[in-house]
Specification:
alpha/beta; Transcription Regulator spoIIAA; 2 domains; 4-stranded parallel β-sheet; 16 strands
Length: 298
Amino acid sequence: MSLTKNILLVNPWIYDFTAYDFWLRPLGLLYIASLLRKHTHPLCKKEIKTKPDGRGPFPKEEVPKPSVLKDVPRKFSRYGIPVPLFLNKLEQIPPPDLVLVTCTMTYWYPGIQLVVELIRKKYGRVPIVLGGVYATLMPEHARTFSGADIVFQGAGEREIFSLFRDALGDSSSLDYRYETLEEIPWPAFDLLSAKDALPVLTSRGCPFNCSFCASPLLHKKFEQRTPSSVVFEVEHHYREHKTRHFAFYDDALLIRKDNHIIPLLKELIQRKLPVFFHSRKRISNPSFSARNPSMRMS
């Protein structure tokens, strides 16, 4: 039995002094979308000028600074599509039975608050579920200040269908748990308006437990996909979406390298796809081409 509900997925605005798109995509939300097998139109049709590798500025609008930041001598902005465009798109979609919202950085929660406010004003008491990094690391803060009905911690695909049953009161919803990263369908990249640069996840979590890192809190165990499955996904997105740039989203990309990243890269090079790869980690931000395996720093 499949889901027959209208489900709205929202990646909220960023409130910050500055923000720049280093291949930032709501990957967790797109994985959930692939599980739901729902296809909706992207909210923003306006073309944003980006670099050839897919990086670029976000649309932004200057907004008043929060009182706690009033003494910081910098402009404060909301990054993302204009609010009127968001409202216009809400007019064009069927009323949702459920709304899923994510949030990457913990201090970006004001974007969630605005989304919840606008959704409530438009649709009333439709159930709103919040997941992602913020919900996982600061669940009590999220329950108190986000406005969401349900705050979900951890990887959503393992509990998403039971969560739907609770939120919708629908006992007919699917009851299935995806236990490994390898089992999950590829992200629903067809929902994105721009697919020239896409994220790819070859592993999740980290085997270490560094006190300064949130990775062990976000993912309780470290797991890696098989190199061949990653190569197959990359080649599919290149041929299906004409994607030329891929950004690794791993926390520990080089762990067990002899059985993971090295054979993965060798197979990609052998296939001679005209694609480029990047790491989202700002410490080094390495990039390389599958046609030219020599590494270069950018």
